[in-house]
Structure formats: structure tokens, C-alpha cells
Specification:
Length: about 450
């Protein structure tokens, strides 16, 4: 960072204490904007950076619901609208016990650049709650979602703020959330929430979109090096929405997926994960350690991560800061060629330095996992026009968008003397788009 951007960062740390993930996300962006600020001095005069790093709005609220024994339970809900310069706030909801205001702010901040890169007119937001859906009955999840929406509904709408899913929030939760929204507002405003089930206005491919999109991005990265996914080995972390759909598309494109994980350990199948078995286990809401009961040559390794398994391709798709410097060194030594972040900010800054120094193709989450929000925009488009696109048409749109994001990152990095640096390309391209809109909208 330059002394100027370091001063801005210090001030953000002072004004937002105890939010290390937010500080980390801001530092990464500020660190790559140096070539832009040198060229566009007027952006500093307009205090664009300071304005961009302050959320437009932050809502925190009490969520009270009753468990299956009639006992009242208490959680804290959040929704942060970070930037509406390009369109209504857009970003998912995370239900996980680790969620704090700082988590939501870092995710919403990342979303600014991601959403700008899609070129689909989306502002940025994120939300969630410290609710843990693990081990909760269907009825408990439904009552929690209804209680959460009973407050959230007044802050959202198809032209204001459009939530979607994230960790712990999938089609089931979005159905309960939308049901309550519809009940309270007396309106079937399908475009208020995306990632819905198909029967209530959801788009084909939205469920698969983030994982498929990461894989399309990897395909484009390898193509610039005259390579393909065919015959490659891959490891992923997580075994949720992003990980399982990335695994499926990697498999379709000829790669062998050797491992995935959850918060308790890693599942390693040296002959390639059986995706049908994985699907069966996940559908039954069982843990990954059930897999070796059905595929005896596979092993579940409690308390480990997948990063010491030799592979060509890695896709961290679980959570933030899950892959550190020592993991990056292990992957690099074992022959890694490319890594695309499926999760948001899964690699620590020191890990990213290792990949950069080793010349490994590295795609940041704000570019590589943008397929989810891009397909959400396609869902909004279908909801507004009351059209229904079929699966192949929607998938084709997604593949095109991911290739365009890839090319934008690469071209922008080149133009700013950072050839091959997808992180710099993503941050600079996203920033310039939002800065232009903020300038056009006037000072506010
Ligand atoms: N769902 C989307 O469309 C979308 C879009 C963009 C980015 N993301 C990001 O992708 C990541 C995964 O989201 P998802 O939608 O697949 O969630 P999910 O709830 O479907 O799955 C999360 C997975 O991560 C695992 N996990 C959680 N904490 C872990 C830990 N500490 N160590 C190891 N594994 C852990 C869980 O066991 C689960 O398998 C998140 O960072 C999310 O922000 C999701």
C-alpha cells in the first residue's frame, strides 16, 4: 500500500474495531488500486475510496423463535447494504454460528466488486444471522426463517435490496423466507429473493451456478496457457452448494475430483469421488464419514484439510481463511497448476503470495464465484418479464458471463501493468465501474 492508502486503511480499522475479516478484504483491494489512483487523481479528490469503504446502511435486529420443545430461542440478524451505485443491493444471507457484523461487512464489501464485474446492474449487500441450522428440525428452520423475515421484510424489495443464499441458506430456507415475505406484504414479488425453488419463480441453473461458474472460469484460465481440464486431478474443500456443483462440472469436463471436506475432516477417494454417492449422503443430510461405508476404498480423515493431497487444480469452496501459507506451500510443492476460489476470501494473504511467487494461475473469489450472483440477475430478469428459460439456455448465458469476467480481469490487469494478476484485474475493473457510477450520481 502507498502511504495514502495505508492511512485510509488505518482509519477504517479505527472506525470499525474488532472486524478483522473486513479489514483484510479492504486491505486486499486498496493494495491493488495503486496503478488506478496514480492515473485518476480526481478520484482521490472526490474521496471515492473513503466513501466506497463505508456501508450505506447496516441493520442489526433481534430474531426470536421457538424450538420444537416450545422454548424461545434468541439470535441476532444482520443486513448490510454496502453500495447501491450500480443497482439495488444484492447479495446472499449466511446462517452460521460464526456470523458477526464484521463477517457480513466483509462479504458485502467483496460483493461490490463481484457484482460490478458481472456488468448486470447490481449493487452490493449481504446479510445473515448467528443461527446454526445444523441439527435443527425442518419445523425449527422454518420458524427461524419466518422470524428473521418478520423484521427483514421492511428493508428489502425488488428495487431496493434482493437477498439470496449463502452458507446455511439454500432452496429450502429461501422458500420459507419468501413465503413469509409474501404473507406479510400481500405481494408475490418474486424478484425480491433469488435462488428460489423453480415452482415459486426460481431460475434453472441458479442452484448449480456458483460451482459451474468457478469451473468455467478455471477452463478459461487454463485455455490462456494452452491447457484444458481434461485429465486433470482436482481437490475441493467443503461439500455444500458450491463444492458439489463445481465437482460435478469438473467431472463433466474430464477432471477427476479426488477429495472434498466439511468442518470435521476430509473425504479422499483416490479413484475419483462418486458424485452419486455424495449426492445420496447430502440429500439424507448425513456426514461425509458415511461415504466409506458405501465406497470401502475411500477414506475419511477427521480433522484434516484436503490441501496436502497432490493435485493439478484446487477449489477452496467452504469458508474464509481456510487455506493458509503452509497449505499453499504444500499444494505448490505437489504440482498445483491453477486455483480458483469458490468461497469468499478462502485463501489468506500469505497463501496468495505463495501462489503468485510460484506463477500459479490464481482466481480470486470475487471473479471466480460471480456465477451465482450473475444467475440471480438472470432470475430477476425472468421474474420481471414472467418468462422461463430452459436449463441449456441459462447455462449458456452463465458460461458466456464467466468468460467475459475472465477476459475483463485479464485485460484490465494487462492495461495496469499487472499481467496475469486476476486479483488486480478484478479489483481495478470493479472499482472503476463503481467509481464511474458514483461520480455520475453526484456527491452523496
Ligand atoms: N451459494 C452461492 O451461490 C455462493 C456464491 C458465491 C460465493 N459463495 C461462497 O461459497 C462458500 C460456500 O458456500 P455454500 O453456498 O456452498 O454453502 P453451504 O452451506 O452449501 O456449504 C458450506 C460447506 O462448507 C463447509 N464448511 C463450513 N465451514 C467450514 C470449515 N470451517 N472448514 C471446512 N468446511 C467448512 C460445510 O461443511 C459445507 O460443506 C462460502 O464462502 C460462500 O460465501 C456461495
Amino acid at each position: 500500500m502507498t502511504p495514502d492508502t495505508a492511512r485510509i486503511h488505518d482509519e477504517i480499522v479505527r472506525r470499525n474495531p474488532a472486524e478483522p475479516e473486513f479489514h483484510q478484504a479492504v486491505a486486499e483491494v486498496l493494495g491493488s488500486l495503486e496503478p488506478v489512483l496514480a492515473r485518476h487523481a480526481h478520484l482521490r479528490e472526490l474521496r471515492l475510496l473513503e466513501r466506497l469503504c463505508e456501508p450505506e446502511r447496516q441493520v442489526m435486529f433481534r430474531v426470536v423463535w421457538t424450538d420444537d420443545h416450545g422454548v424461545p430461542r434468541l439470535n441476532r440478524g444482520y443486513r448490510v447494504g454496502f453500495s447501491s451505485a450500480l443497482g439495488p443491493y444484492k447479495g446472499g444471507l449466511r446462517f452460521h454460528p460464526s456470523v458477526t457484523l464484521g463477517t457480513v461487512k466483509f462479504l458485502a464489501f467483496e460483493q461490490i466488486f463481484k457484482n460490478a464485474l458481472t456488468g448486470l446492474g447490481l449493487g452490493a449487500g449481504k446479510g445473515g444471522a448467528d443461527f446454526d441450522p445444523a441439527g435443527r428440525s425442518d419445523g425449527e428452520v422454518m420458524r427461524f426463517c419466518q422470524a428473521y423475515m418478520t423484521e427483514l421484510y421492511r428493508h428489502i424489495g425488488p428495487h431496493t435490496d434482493i437477498p439470496a443464499g449463502d452458507i446455511g441458506v439454500g432452496t429450502r430456507e429461501l422458500g420459507y423466507l419468501f413465503g413469509q415475505y409474501k404473507r406479510i406484504t400481500n405481494r408475490f414479488d418474486a424478484g425480491t429473493l433469488t435462488g428460489k425453488a423453480h415452482t415459486i419463480g426460481g431460475s434453472h441453473v441458479r442452484t448449480e451456478a456458483t460451482g459451474y461458474g468457478v469451473t468455467y472460469f478455471l477452463e478459461a484460465m487454463l485455455a490462456t496457457r494452452g491447457d484444458t481440464l481434461d485429465g486433470k486431478t482436482a481437490v475441493l474443500s467443503g461439500s455444500g452448494n458450491v463444492a458439489t456443483h463445481a465437482a460435478a462440472k469438473l467431472h463433466d469436463l474430464g477432471a477427476t475430483v479426488l477429495a472434498c471436506s466439511d468442518s470435521t475432516g476430509t473425504l479422499h477417494d483416490p479413484s475419483g469421488l462418486r458424485l452419486d454417492v455424495l449426492h445420496e449422503i447430502k440429500t439424507a443430510r448425513r456426514k461425509l464419514d458415511a461415504y466409506p461405508e458405501l465406497v470401502p476404498h475411500a477414506r475419511f480423515l477427521p480433522g484434516t484439510t484436503p490441501w496436502d493431497i497432490p493435485c493439478d487444480i484446487a477449489v477452496p469452496a467452504a469458508t474464509q481463511n481456510e487455506l493458509d501459507e503452509s497449505d499453499a506451500i504444500a499444494l505448490t510443492k505437489n504440482g498445483l497448476r491453477a486455483l480458483a476460489e469458490g468461497a469468499n476470501m478462502p485463501c489468506t494473504p500469505a497463501a496468495i503470495d505463495v501462489f503468485r511467487d510460484a506463477g500459479i494461475a490464481f482466481a480470486p473469489g470475487k471473479a471466480a464465484n460471480a456465477g451465482g450472483v450473475a444467475t440471480s440477475a438472470l432470475e430477476m430478469r425472468q421474474n420481471a418479464s414472467r418468462e422461463r428459460w430452459d436449463f441449456p439456455t441459462t447455462d449458456q448465458h452463465l458460461a458466456t458471463i464467466m468468460r467475459e469476467i475472465h477476459d475483463t480481469c485479464l485485460t484490465t490487469a494487462d492495461e495496469h501493468d499487472r499481467p496475469g494478476d486476476y486479483t488486480a484485474g478484478a479489483n481495478i475493473a470493479g472499482f472503476l465501474t463503481v467509481a464511474d457510477a458514483m461520480t455520475t450520481l453526484g456527491i452523496a
